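Thread: HD domain-containing protein, structure

OP (GT): Posting the sequence first so everyone is looking at the same thing. Length is 221 residues per the record. Can we get the C-alpha cells written out before standup tomorrow? I want them in the notebook alongside the other entries.
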Amino acid sequence: MDKEDIIQKTIAFVREELSEAEGGHDWWHIKRVWKTSQQMAQKENVDVLVVELGALLHDIADAKFHRGDETIGPAKATSFLETIDVDKSIIDHVKNIIEHVSFKGGNFERTFSSKELDVVQDADRLDAMGAIGIARAFNYGGFKNRLIYDPEIPPKLNMTKEEYKKSTAPTINHFYEKLLLLKDKMNTNTGREMARKRHDFMEHFLEQFYNEVGERFFFQT
Ligand code: ADP
Ligand code: NI
C-alpha cells in the first residue's frame, strides 16, 4: 500500500472511531493537529509519514474518556496499522508518540524522545491555545459539568500528574494550570513561533474576562 492509501485508510478509521467524541476531541481536532503537523514537518527534519500517522492517531482512545486507561489508544492504533500492513518500525514509533504526547500536568517527565513526537506534541498543544483552545476548554468544562469560574477557588499552580488528573476545578483555572504554560513547553522553533500569537490572545481574553466579572486580574506567568 502506498503512503497516500495508508493516510486515507487511517483518516477513515479515525473518523469512524471518533464519531461520538466530545467536541474538543473530535475528528476536527485531529484534522487541525494533522494539518498543523504537516506544516511544521516541512520546516523540521522529520519522517513525514510517522508525523502524519502520529497526529491522526494521537487521540484515538484518550485515557480521559476511558476510565484513565492509557493502554487502549496505543493498542487500538497498533492493531489498526497492522491490518493495513504498515512497517513494524513505523508502528512502534507511532505507538510511542501516542503514549507520550499527552500533557498530564506540568511535572511529567517525558521518557521517549523523537523529532516526530516533538512536532505532533507541539501541534496538539497549539490546538489547546488561542481562540480554538479557549473554545475547547469551555466545551470540555461543560461536558464535565464544571463551573466556568468560582472566585473562591483559586487556580493551583504546579500540580503533580495525579492532582492534575483528579482536578475538578472551574474551567477558568485550567488556563493557569495548563494553557498559559504551553508556550514555554514548545519543542520546536516553528511551534514556539506559532504559539506566541495564540498565547497573547489568551492573555487578552483573560484580562477582558476578569474585567467583566469585576475580579482582580490574576496573572502570574
Ligand atoms: P493532553 O492530552 O495534552 O493532556 P488534554 O487532552 O488534557 O491534553 O487537553 C485537550 C483539550 O481539553 C484542551 O483543549 C484542554 O484545554 C481541554 N481540557 C483538558 N482538561 C481540561 C480541564 N480540566 N478544563 C478545561 N479544559 C480541559
Ligand atoms: Ni489531541
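GT: Both are above now. Quick notes for whoever picks this up: The chain is about 60% helix and 0% strand. The CA atoms of residues 66 and 72 lie 8 Å apart.
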